[in-house]
Amino acid sequence: MNVKNKAIENIQSSFRQFANLILNQLELLEKIMNCKEPQISDELLVQLNSNEKTFDQYEIEMSEKFINSIVLYKPVASDLRKIMAIYRMSINLERIGDLIMNIVLTIRKLKDPKIYAQMSDVIFNMLVSSINMVEKSLLSFSNVDRELAIWTIKNDSVIDEMNHKLLKKTISKSSEMSDESKNILLGFMGIRNIITNIERIADNATNIAEASIYSLDGTDLRHTKMDDDNKHTNNKSIN
Predict the structure, then answer these.
(1) Where are the alpha helices (DSSP H) in 74-145?
(2) pLDDT tens digits, 105-121
(3) Whole-prediction pTM value?
(4) What structural domains does the chain harbor?
């Protein structure tokens, strides 16, 4: 293996580690939210914050590797396309890390857990669906599987619809509450913040899937629409 190929493999190896760290963070979030009244201990919060700092460091280190590989080795078109795709995916992974922490901090600040409990099952289903999209988008790149990427892009509309219904449900629930409870809900809007951040995780998964397709065949699907046929698969680990 020549020096250029080693540099590209090093970038891919770092990306795989970065991706698995994000998946682990999402797994922690899933465990936290898999109950009516989610609780986050100080110890767990320290772990989540530590992971977030690791993500930031990975992004900095990978940015340096991207620049060095392009400047020093002048990769051919196919290699350059792969490097740029990984760069795009890394940015979206870092954003997912930020969104996870937004949700965690919002959960910690919830004033009235009963409000969340009334919609916890639907919110949790939305989170699981978004995490599934992240997993599939990453697998599409690591497994060189275009269909997984297409599945992810198509399912973004499903998450959008879930978000729309949840927000309507939040408003409907607020009209049934006492003035005191309503003021808590309107003053903090924690539920809406959680829902919005989950939807943005799905949006970033879609961006990763688009970058994966760009890496595979050079097709740029940004700002375009897919057809409505969904294809379902059940792979999970990133190798």
Answers:
(1) 77-109, 113-117, 120-142
(2) 998 887 777 777 878 88
(3) 0.84
(4) 3-217 (1.20.58.220)
